[in-house]
Amino acid sequence: MQQNKNKTTPAIDVSILIRAKNEDKHIGQTLSVLFSQTYMKFEVLIVDSGSTDRTLEIAREYPVKIYEIKPEDFTYGYSLNYGFERAEGDFVVNLSAHALPSSNDWLSTLIDNFNDDRVAAVMSNNLPNPDCNPFDRRGLLKKYAIPKQQISGGPPYIFANYSSAVRKSVWEKVHYSETLSYAEDHDWALRVEALGYKIIYEPDAKTYHSHNETLKQIYRRSYMEASARKILKFQKYTLLNILYDLLAGSFYDMLYVLFKRDNLKWFLFAPLRRIAINYARLQASIAVNMDEVKKGADNS
């Protein structure tokens, strides 16, 4: 572990945990906003899983603790548990390296919700970045346009760790799954809710977070997400609903681009994006089914 001690901080009651790999385009801006917060009783921990760019060089310019794990050991759940074990705060804020809090009272707005002892976690509002593609922008603005409320970890899968605060004493009872390729946050939230805890959505704690991914990246993310959701029985993918989403979804997206008079490139990208998503879902579903059959055979 490496620590930069350029700045002393007050007594710590919040740990901000950032998972990073090759985030030199974003990490500096994210850390700059963090160290401009009105709520200053925090530490920042960075769990890096093999950056080869300037991520760590930039991070060392700030008073942060840096931990490095092997890329082959990385899962979302493992890196979170690794960071939680080393966090000093009573509350741990999970923040993606490319998630940018929108104001200097973001942290205080999150933490204020823990006045209720039954609150296990608080979820930020998710705003699309200015350059976000029209499809993700549409989805994010619709999904998070809801008032402050208690939310569920399961369908509609709103709880996520890109920007959330967790009561550490609850994590000590329920760790994140280290075997899931994705959706470790959904799984954790459901298990915590089963113990009678509450999860709060805080719309006033706003964070800019979205992805403009290549088709390869879209396929990879969709494959991991579909695998995890199928394993957790959150969602069942059939050939019929895959084909429906591919055809109807492509048609809807293309019309949406025309209606919004958006860049023509998104009109052409729309069906390719849906092909990548649904081919990934099909492949993931087949792989999980085969694995379940294999496990059944091994146990018989």
Q: If you had to describe this structure to a student in words, what would you say it looks like?
A:
The protein has 300 residues and is of the alpha/beta class. The chain has helices at 27-34, 55-59, 76-86, 106-111, 134-143, 168-171, 184-193, 215-231, 239-260, 264-299, and strands spanning 2-3, 14-20, 42-48, 65-68, 91-96, 100-101, 119-127, 149-151, 163-167, 198-208. Strands 1, 2, 3, 4, 5, 6, 7, 8, 9 and 10 form a 10-stranded mixed β-sheet that branches. The chain is globular and about 55 Å long. The model is unreliable at 5-9 (pLDDT under 50).
Reconstruct the topology from this structure.
Layout lengths: L1 E2 L10 E7 L6 H8 L7 E7 L6 H5 L5 E4 L7 H11 L4 E6 L3 E2 L4 H6 L7 E9 L6 H10 L5 E3 L11 E5 H4 L12 H10 L4 E11 L6 H17 L7 H22 L3 H36 L1
Helix pairs in contact: 8-10, 9-10
Task: Report the sheet-strand fraction.
Answer: 15-25%
Poorly predicted spans: 5-9
Mind summarizing the main beta sheet? 10 strands, mixed
How many helix segments? 10
End-to-end Cα distance, whole Å, is 46 Å
Helical fraction equals 40-55%
Number of strands: 10
Give the mean pLDDT: 91
**What is the general shape?**
globular
Please identify the structural class as seen in this structure: alpha/beta
Radius of gyration, in angstroms, nearest whole number: 20 Å
Q: H/E order of the elements?
A: EEHEHEHEEHEHEEHHEHHH
